[in-house]
Amino acid sequence: MKKNIKIAPSILSADFANLEKEISILNNSEADYVHVDVMDGHFVNNLTFGPPVIEKIRKYSKKPFDVHLMIKSVDQYLESYSKAGADIITIHPETTNNLDNAISKIKSLGKRVGVSLNPDVSIDKVLPVINKIDLLLIMSVYPGFAGQKFIPDVLKKVKILSEKINNENLNVEIEIDGGINIDTAKLAKKAGANVLVAGTAVYSENKVLENIKLLKNC
Ligand code: DX5
Ligand code: ZN
């Protein structure tokens, strides 16, 4: 059966001076989510935006906001990102004092919850909570910057986790993030990913709608 692939364009590669326009373009696209990369300059070596900017741009989006938090001490910020309009809140296990509590907190805020694994983080970090989450975000680059090269080794994690999710009939999406293009998208899809994040591949050559369509049908 052909698995329905979702596309989550990362606005990290969009034009930050024209975010309203960039968000509106995605409204008319085949994108399923808007992937919003929040970076704090500590957990990763780059700094993007926080709740006030997300709140402003959320108003223009007809697509759910898939907010990827790459920030230290994440527990104290969950409420702000929820209020700003995140629909999915994804966190890294290293950034919370207690992953279980953080997951419950996100759910209590009425949001879908994701857990993200960096390339060097083992699946053991997520296995104890896999039946409590909605989305598993497998990083296929070390987070921080768009335009990096895909790390094929992480596909092993995608395969193991997707088999587990299927065998146990869990309702968990597997999203992959970093270095996704037509070729790596095919590999990720084959390994079991069903949501593809793409920054560079979507925003290249001013052909956002076409690029999204190509990824969706790859
Ligand atoms: C990496 C971010 C990604 C990134 C993807 O730190 O989490 O979402 O923007 O960009 P590309 O698709 O260019 O690798
Ligand atoms: Zn991301």
Report on the structure:
This protein is an alpha/beta fold. The protein is built from seven helices and eight strands. The chain has helices spanning 19-27, 51-58, 78-84, 99-108, 155-167, 182-191, 208-216; strands spanning 6-9, 34-39, 65-70, 88-91, 112-117, 135-139, 173-177, 195-198. It has an eight-stranded parallel β-sheet with strand order 1-8-7-6-5-4-3-2. The longest helix is centred in the last third of the chain and has 13 residues, at 155-167.
SSE inventory with pairings:
Blueprint: E1 6-9, H1 19-27, E2 34-39, H2 51-58, E3 65-70, H3 78-84, E4 88-91, H4 99-108, E5 112-117, E6 135-139, H5 155-167, E7 173-177, H6 182-191, E8 195-198, H7 208-216
Parallel strand pairs: 1-8, 2-3, 3-4, 4-5, 5-6, 6-7, 7-8
Helix pairs in contact: 2-3
This protein binds D-xylitol-5-phosphate (DX5) and zinc ion (ZN).
D-xylitol-5-phosphate (DX5) binds at residues 10, 12-13, 35, 37, 68, 141, 143-148, 177-180, 197-201.
Order of helices and strands: EHEHEHEHEEHEHEH
Low-confidence stretches: none
* Bound compounds: D-xylitol-5-phosphate, zinc ion
Choose one word for the global shape: globular
Q: What is the percent of helical residues?
A: 25-40%
Quaternary organization: single chain
Q: Mind describing the biggest β-sheet?
A: 8 strands, parallel
